[in-house]
Specification:
With 304 residues, this protein is mainly alpha-helical. Helix content is 70%, strand content 10%.
């Protein structure tokens, strides 16, 4: 049994709105940071701006990934298009890693051959970025957690990584300015440290997306909730298997219920639909429940 798409549509709408907000903010901040970095002689700030521009591209991936994920099942995708969501998360994480490696390369070049100290006003730009990015991370992360989207949560970590690069750039530029001659390489070291943090966070977001694409079972919270709900339906003697599969923003459940062996096919069919209805009513994130009837004697034989 399948529910209608309204809960899923609402979740996707929230996710796409957060992605669009991030795209607009990143575009503005990226252009501002790159301009200030070029004019103010700060590679760390330019690297930070390039990371923001990369976030624009990753935001577009998240946006279109969610749009595809909400499409209904068809002949080629009987379970829907939910896998587009973790695929988007993988693309976003890989883009973040690519940006980090680019920053590492340029940071090393800057350390080897440092340029003159950055202009003091670059610190003002970075302070503003830190505030904006901190607020944006909290907003997008909250949306990602509430709708259970790996892609949106990966997008949120892009915003946090941007804030981290800005924080490192702020420290590096401050050291270069206050330290005077001989401390110019602090700008490059700041970019290098930021890139390493970005790599770590990118891996943290990439791993669960890859696991989901490999159909690794989600945590047992959903299974426990399904078992609790199904176990309260009258006529069920016990529960056997409960298999949960995550498809993007939704879950598909295969549930084996144990009933009296003499129960008629008609009664078993009615009971299975009642279980489905109860699970779908209580758990909006579940898209479909497939219930298999097990006679009490069969379960007893298998457990002996």
């Amino acid at each position: 049994m399948k529910r209608d798409g309204n809960p899923l549509r609402s979740a996707v709408d929230r996710g796409t709105k957060s992605a669009l907000l991030g795209i607009l903010v990143n575009l503005g901040l990226g252009l501002a940071k790159c301009s200030a970095g070029l004019l103010g002689n700060s590679f760390a700030l330019v690297a930070d701006g390039l990371e923001s521009i990369t976030d624009v591209l990753s935001g577009l991936v998240v946006y279109f990934g969610l749009k595809v994920a909400v499409k209904p099942p068809d002949a080629n995708h009987p379970y829907g298009h939910g896998k587009a969501e973790p695929i988007a998360a993988v693309v976003v994480s890989l883009a973040l890693m690519a940006a980090a490696f680019a920053i590492i390369y340029e940071g090393i070049r800057e350390i080897i051959a440092p340029h003159p100290a950055p202009a003091p006003y670059t610190l003002v730009v970075l302070a503003g970025v830190l505030i904006i990015k901190g607020l944006l991370f909290r907003r997008v992360q909250s949306v990602g957690e509430s709708i259970g989207s790996l892609a949106v949560k990966s997008d949120a970590w892009h915003h946090k990584s941007d804030a981290l690069t800005s924080a490192f750039a702020f420290v590096g530029i401050s050291i270069a300015i206050l330290g005077g001659p001989g401390w110019e390489a602090a700008d490059g070291w700041a970019a290098l440290c930021a890139a390493l943090v970005i790599l770590f966070n990118a891996w943290k977001q990439l791993r669960p997306a890859i696991l989901e694409l490999g159909d690794v079972a989600p945590d047992t919270t959903m299974e426990a909730q399904v078992r609790q709900i199904a176990g309260q339906v009258g006529g069920i003697i016990g529960l056997d298997k409960c298999l949960v599969r995550k498809m993007g923003l939704t879950y598909y459940v295969d549930l084996h219920i144990v009933v009296q062996g003499e129960m008629s096919v008609r009664e078993g069919h009615r009971l299975s639909h009642k279980v489905e209805d109860e699970v779908l009513r209580a758990l909006p994130q579940v898209a479909e429940v497939l219930v298999h009837i097990e006679p009490e004697e069969e379960l007893t034989r298998l457990t002996e």
